[in-house]
Specification:
Length: 130
């Protein structure tokens, strides 16, 4: 069985490291690909032709917001089916509603790595059973 590829987009290197190390510690079948910007995310998808099983996407990113990255991903037919979890420090109701509506899930920072892993598993299981 191949590893589950999780692309994590966050401008905070500490968050990227904690997600990468945390998920790896909980599940050796997960490969985490960390990137620090929306531009890097799109570059990876386009140039490297990497198609992750799931994307964990911060909303508040420099230059290109998580919302913009989401829109760019969903407008391409080959990426439309990639589930996206929004991960953000924004706790306002508007962000919650939009994030929950657009993405498969919405998680506020700070978060527990076990909770993130459980949500990733649930989404991938649902996708696998479609």
């Amino acid at each position: 069985m191949r590893k589950k590829r999780i692309l994590v987009v966050d401008d905070n290197p500490d968050i990227l490291t904690s997600i990468k190390e945390g998920l790896k510690a909980l599940d050796s079948d997960i490969e985490v690909i960390p990137v620090e910007s929306g531009e890097d995310c799109l570059r990876l998808l386009i140039r490297e032709k990497i198609k992750p099983d799931l994307i964990v996407l911060d909303i508040m990113l420099p230059k290109m917001s998580g919302w913009e990255v989401y829109n760019r991903i969903k407008e391409r037919i080959e990426w439309k089916d990639i589930p996206i979890i929004f991960l953000t420090a924004r706790t306002d109701q508007k962000a919650k509603e939009i994030g929950s509506f657009l993405g498969e899930d919405f998680i506020e920072k700070p978060f527990e790595i076990e909770e993130l892993k459980a949500r990733i598993d649930r989404i991938l299981e649902r996708k696998h059973n479609q």
